[in-house]
Amino acid sequence: MKRLLLAVWTVLILLIVSCCSRNQDFLPDHVARFEEPPQRIPSRFSVDAPLLGNGYMGVAMSGSPERLAFYLNRNDFWRLVSAHDESFPAIAGRLELAVPALEGASYEVEQHLWDATTLGRFSKDGVSASLEAYVAATEDILVLRITNEGGESLSGRARLLLPDPSPFPEKREEGVTPEGIQFIYRGFADSVEIPAASASALLVPGSADGSFSLAPGESLVMACATAGSFKTDDCLQAASRLAAACDKRHLSEARKAHERWWASYWNKSWVRIPDPLIEKQYYLSLYGMASCSRDPDFPPSLFGNWITGEIPAWMGDYHLNYNHMAPYYGLYSSNRLEQADPYYGPLLAAIPRGQFYSGSVCGIPDGILLPVGIGPLGIETTRWSASLEKAHPAWKDSGNIECGGMFWGQKSNSAYAVCNLAMQFYRTLDRDFTEKVYPFVKGVATFWEKYLVLEGNRYVILNDAIHEGTLGTKNPICSLGLVRLVMETACDMSELLGVDFGRCEAWKDCHDRLAGYPLQERGGKTVFRYTEEGVAWWNDNTLGIQHIYPAGQIGLSSNPGLLETARNTIEEMNRWMDFNGTNSLYPAAVRVGYPADSILTHLHAYALHTYPNGFQRDNPHGPENWSTVPATVNEMLCMGHQGIVRLFPVWPRSLDAAFHQLRVEGAFLVSAALKDGEIGNVTLLSERGTLLSMQNPWPGREVEITGPGGRKQIVGGEILKVETTPGSTYRFRAKNPDRRRTLGQ
Q: Residue 151 and residue 128: Cα distance in Å, rounded?
């Protein structure tokens, strides 16, 4: 299904990139400019086709110098109906900034990541202008400042435009309020399950139609506000009122709040590595996720919150066989939990439908089984519909549609959804979060507990699919890893909450007696087989290693033979530029100790293979690969897995590096530095007071640990065991350093 619509997304990518593709000779190099703020986050990157947003409102900049277009989106503006090809995130509208004198101008665009501001500079035959743009972090307003930097007056016009109508009934309005505020409105109320609407309002000071004329040196500031029907009873009134309030004082306060929010965001953690290209992609990825993911009920769609064409590919939905999960992988270890939280909202809303399918398809009414695609608020975007039957009549009898749900033979979607819940759970041990998501995890565990078949002394998985449409296979390797993760997560969550003790015995039995991972020989080496019976290998994607990551079932403490097989499989795959799977392949390579130099070489090439706005080239999706670099780099620098915290576990000792407050399993925040091959002092904050097991950063030497109140203890051995208390900070340094330099003092 995905390949059929590749061309559609390609067109959308080209549309976004067109903003800066016309005059390539005038674009600056796409590398970091190392002007470091005190907080150590690189402040500016050259970037074209910038994406702006605050996690609720998104703006994609496109067009040409004389006619710039700012596509306005809201996370919460969808057409909401449970039917395939009928439910999708919709465009709120477009702000067009027309300055005819800039036709054919040369230009450059620069993205300031530190304060999330985009700067554009345009020049032609003595005509010169600059543009500053940002979406306020704490209000849903796009602020534009255009300045005439030439020697003659500069005229233009800003106006709001509705997109072309969708094929479905909608209400549309546009006009100007008595106060001179331009507005546009779109709403879906007919033939939907949940009505939704969005409004945008534009204030151009002193002009009702948006026209302006700037004398040399003069600037104009305009504000465009958006509002959605899920945040206010009258979104048109709310947007108009907000735009009207955007006087100089209001915008000054909004700017200060904006800068405070982003400063706080960047200070949650940082890394410093010697490859500026990888580092650029690291921070650009985190910037992108902050810009599109904060709304707890409406996480970013398949293309973030930057839709530029009506009805995006795959309906822009939450695809549950990895696409919805992947953007978040790097957020947990990067300590960006506010951006990670929206992930699970649609899953909790889908529980009733998951119970329906579990009962109807498999006869397990108390389990949870979800199809390939869902939307927000319990909407099912891939449900069988009249339009789908007309377009693909053969699908209904192919086995890919079951009880009206599009499964493509895969039983693993709900189990895959647990991966992110487990990442957040083990890294925070947060009771409130666990109480929210445990019903979903319990339902998925219940499904698999009753779906597994006992064959001899082992449990097996029958009638599942490793890839979409590979019906009826036995023991798909991805499902084997996911089910193990589900069972251990359900048990550990129930223990934290003090519930369902009687269920854990059955879940542990399923985990312990589940079939082993199937193997095969390729190129004279043992590698994983994709299924025990059925598909043996696949020439794209990375499902053959996703039991390693994101399922987390193999790591540096695993059996050496299993680790060798894992490394052989990654080498045989050689899919460092995979169409779908880079977000799992790179972290999986780190988890099993693949050579660090090789990982960094491939990661550098991957960072080169991205659009300047951070999206992966030749990938028809959106933010899903923004996790690739953060998740990989974080694991290389600080890995908390299988109960052990490891510092620089898969990192070349010849390369200096440092990190601050990376989040690892056990609810620990860790900071450390590596210089001249030696790890310096280490700082660890224990949020929950769990037992710390840390691989000794200084093998063969004793370690002095300073805890709360300055209390010191000396610990030795390969694994340092430390009882911690909640909210306390611990500092580690090598005892008797033999005159070797100690960092961080």
A: 8
The answer to whether the beta carbons of residues 484 and 551 sit under 8 Å apart is yes
Residue 406, number of CB atoms within 10 A of its CB: 21
Kindly tell me the burial class for residue 549, based on how many C-beta atoms sit within 10 Å of its own C-beta (0-12, 13-18, 19 or more). buried
How far does Cα 54 stand from its chain's mean position? Answer: 14
Q: SS in 3 state form for 476-521?
A: CHHHHHHHHHHHHHHHHHHHHHCCCHHHHHHHHHHHHHECCCCEEE
> Do the beta carbons of residue 261 and residue 225 sit within 8 Å?
no
Q: Nearest-CA neighbor of 330 among 638, 692, 655?
A: 638
Q: Which two tokens stand for residue 227?
A: 């509002």
Q: What is the mean pLDDT of residues 357-367?
A: 97
Q: How far apart, in whole angstroms, are the C-alpha atoms of residue 230 and residue 79?
A: 13
| Six token digits for residue 18 | 């067109």
Is the backbone peptide bond immediately before 550 cis, with ω within 30 degrees of 0? yes
Q: Label residue 317 left, alpha or beta by phi (over 0 means left) and psi (-120 to 50 means alpha).
A: beta
How far apart are alpha carbons 528 and 481 in whole angstroms? 12
Query: Would you place residue 738 in the very low, low, confident or very high pLDDT band (cuts 50, 70, 90)?
Result: low
Spatial distance between the Cα atoms of 358 and 370, rounded to a whole number of angstroms:
8
Q: Find the helix packing angle between 501-513 and 477-497, rounded to 10°.
A: 160
Residue 645: Cβ within 10 Å count: 23
**Pairing of β 657-664 and β 270-272:** antiparallel
Q: Is-contact 681 668, C-beta < 8 A?
A: no
Type of residue numbered 69: A
Residues sharing a CB contact under 8 Å with residue 107, sequence separation 6 or more, in sequence order:
20, 23, 26, 65, 120, 121, 122, 123
Name 210's Cβ contacts closer than 8 Å, sequence gap at least 6. Answer: 157, 158, 159, 182, 202, 204
What is the number of alpha carbons within 13 Å of residue 200 lying toward its C-beta?
29
Q: Does position 244 have pLDDT exceeding 50, yes or no? A: yes
DSSP 117-159: EEEEEEEETTEEEEEEEEE-SSSSEEEEEEEE-SSS-EEEEEE
pLDDT at 296: 96
pLDDT tens, residue by residue, 522-574: 999 999 999 999 999 999 899 999 999 999 999 999 999 999 999 999 999 99
> Is the CB of residue 469 less than 8 Å from the CB of residue 409?
yes
**Tokens encoding 487:** 């069972």
Of 117, 89, 721, nearest in space to 381 by CA = 89
Collapsed DSSP state (helix, strand, coil) of residue 559: coil
For the chain, the helix, strand and coil percentages under 3-state DSSP, each to the nearest 5: 35, 25, 40
278-315 confidence digits (pLDDT tens) = 999 999 999 999 999 999 999 999 999 998 888 888 88
565 phi/psi in degrees, rounded to 5 = -60, -40
What's CA 153's distance to the chain center, in Å? 44
- Reported as half-sphere exposure (CB side, CA atoms, 13 A), residue 183 has a value of 25
Helix (H) / strand (E) element for 562: namely: helix 560-573
